Amino acid sequence: MTRTADTLAGLSFNPVEPSQTAAARFLARGPLGLLIGGRWTAAADGDEFSTVDPATGRTLAMVPRAGVQDAEAAVAAARIALESDPWAGNTPEERSRLLWRIADLLEANLDELAALESLDQGKVLATAKFGEIPAAIAQFRYYAAAARALEGTTVPTSLRRQGPERQVFAYTVREPIGVVAAVVPWNSPLLMAAMKLAPALAAGCTVVLKPAENTPLTALRLGELLVEAGTPAGVVNILTGFGQEVGAALATHAGVDKITFTGSTAVGKQLVGDARSNLKRLTLELGGKSPAIIMGDADVTRAAAGVSRGIFDNGGQVCVASSRIYAQRGVYEQVLAAMAEKAESLSLGHGMDPRAELGPLVSRAQADRVQAYVSSGRAEGAEVLAGGVQGGAEGTFFQPTVVSGVAEDSPLMREEIFGPVAVVTPFDDPEQVIEWANDSRYGLAASVWTEGLSNAHRMAAQIKAGTVWINCHSYFSPELPKGGHKESGWGYENGALGLSNYLESKTVCAVI
Ligand code: NAD
């Protein structure tokens, strides 16, 4: 039975008051500050903004609204820290130990961080507690090891000896790029911050971190833990505020050597222009519209469950969400029915409510956006088999939704919705489905579901995407490089490639 707007309106979302928890103590502690040069401070002009619980609209905390002056101060602090001891003279072991201490402190405060993430972003507590915060911790541990494995090369050259006594000796060294502006989105706030901070610090860079305006809380708590871990003043600076304000100030600042950005393709393109003045290095992790292809020989139950998780987890606010599902004709009806059943069975509720399997979307604006896509799809003749309804006290909830009968050129099929909306389409010919899968400006990720080994690897080779999963979706690990092809990004995160993002290579050539 399809739930209606009325049933959603009936959900009063009684948040479990975290009055006794560390998260509540953090929120009650008084004015939160910007972290600049090792000190907590208000915004230069005293501006603040509220961050709210998206399920209830309740203000959780007031946070400083950083502006141009704060960006100036933070970049200056990061430059001084980069060029002076203790950071400039640190050893790989010292950086490694620091990263490990940060990981330990995150772990010791996992419950608090998970609760803050759930309250601020809306995600269910379990997603934060068992998924994202542990994944953030894993980033720091992985790059704690990588910090001690940086190597250059010695390079035999074809240059002639410079006389009988002389020869040419050349080598390369890897050096930190310098001051990094790390700008992150709101869907998985602490994890996205960790994916930038851990490799940047392992490489010896200094950082100005700007969390998304919707979700500043875990970045600020992380800042406290960074200080507690002994991060030297100015090595990490944290500016809460808006993209068009402090974000743009960082992106255009001549003192910033690199921008590492995760967010929308539209803002990523804007940053390409902003970086031009001093040719900042850029890593861009952008949007996606990831296809999942279920072949006729797949384990259909497993595939339907896997792609349902891929699109419904975190309310579909996942860059690699399996938003386009192509099922071979023989299993199409079965996939559709299983996904619709799953969508109907998921219980919506406040992220802190242990019964909730899905929380609200991050904001009313995001839920309105998702609703607009579904409504225009309906108007074009698409069939909504499950969900499709927005609701809740603040209008921030959106039912997990399964849609079929969507044309290949519909916005529902082509654009990133960033909500729990699965578009399911049948196909007959495997060559045709590869064409459809690749017919997108995005190339972030894809999955193929089949019991046929050759099929799986042939299709993995044909799909244009930064990651192709076989019989799984949204599987991540710090060892696995992650990046976008086409308009889904530039560069990679995770693994050795992720560390390279924060390093320059220098060639030294000597006659000895
Ligand atoms: P967004 O692009 O609107 O904002 C991302 C960040 O950029 C925020 O901190 C924002 O304040 C800041 N920002 C906005 N305008 C800016 C500007 N002009 N200069 C500097 N900074 C600016 O994205 P969002 O809505 O927060 O996040 C959703 C998007 O993120 C989706 O497109 C999603 O696919 C993408 N995403 C990608 C990945 C990935 O790894 N590829 C991971 C998660 C999310």
From TrEMBL:
Its EC number is 1.2.1.39. The active site is at 285. Keywords: Oxidoreductase. It holds the Pfam family Aldedh. The keyword Oxidoreductase applies. One of its GO terms (molecular function) is phenylacetaldehyde dehydrogenase (NAD+) activity. Residues 40-508 form the Aldehyde dehydrogenase domain. Belongs to the aldehyde dehydrogenase family. This is Phenylacetaldehyde dehydrogenase. The lineage of its organism: Bacteria, Bacillati, Actinomycetota, Actinomycetes, Micrococcales.
